[in-house]
Amino acid sequence: MNKNRIAIVTGANKGLGYAVVKSLCKKFRGIVYLTSRDEKRGIEACKGLEKLGLKPVYHQLDITNETSIEKFRNHIQDKQIEVIINNAGILFQKDAPEPQLFQVEQTVLVNFFSLINFCEAMLPYITYDGKIVNISSSSGHLCRIPSEDLRKKFSSENLTLKELKSLINGYVEAVKRNEDLKEVWGESPYVVSKVGVNAYTFLLQRNLFSKGVKVNCIHPGYVISDMTRGSGNVTPEDAAEVVVKLALEPQDTGLYIWSNGKPVPWDGPDPRQYIDGKQIN
Fold this sequence. Notes:
Layout: E1 2-9, H1 15-27, E2 30-36, H2 39-50, E3 57-60, H3 66-76, E4 80-86, H4 100-122, E5 126-135, H5 148-155, H6 161-176, H7 189-208, E6 214-218, H8 236-248, E7 256-257, H9 271-274
Parallel strand pairs: 1-2, 1-4, 2-3, 4-5, 5-6, 6-7
């Protein structure tokens, strides 16, 4: 084991993140960091894995908090990051009581802006052959955005990070103005946040290509978790195997991987139909 080479998993005290850490501990030749916003739950998660003979390292990390990111950065700055798996995220259910604007702001803050802030802070420490995996969703497919103009902007190979952030901020501002967004952005802030994550994935891949860093995103499937209130058709363990394979043995870079482990065109037909066999209204 190389103690200077590390893998980092965010939001890893339960569910998919926990299962990813468990798998990485068995397969990655280095230190695996289990991180979580809640320190008590994160330490308990590590103890659970230690009982299985595994040796994750815990560090508190709230990706929405700049001070927390800075503390983590200082902690790992003398190490080499080989793998980053950006897993932390939130989802408001359709019957959530919180006001729409609150749901929108929190969803894009955690799933999009905070993911980017953390990832960008880690980039100086990633190795030449490093791998970044962003946990996305079927909701991140570009077809989920109704507006053709927006789809073109998101998929432009000339899109900059500043422009991407401006697009997402524009969505939030439109919600504040109480605009009718059904035929423009759609009705789901989760979709917008995950489309943003995918756009960031491909933007980052272009920026890091010359450095040999592979950047990909993945829809892990409808994973059984607290976030889905226990519903789903994929166990965290099964989903984790696809995620970890992408992290340790990526086929290429700039890929959007479906839950079956196969790459799909981000700007192509909806894979929920031709892969999952789902009827889309």
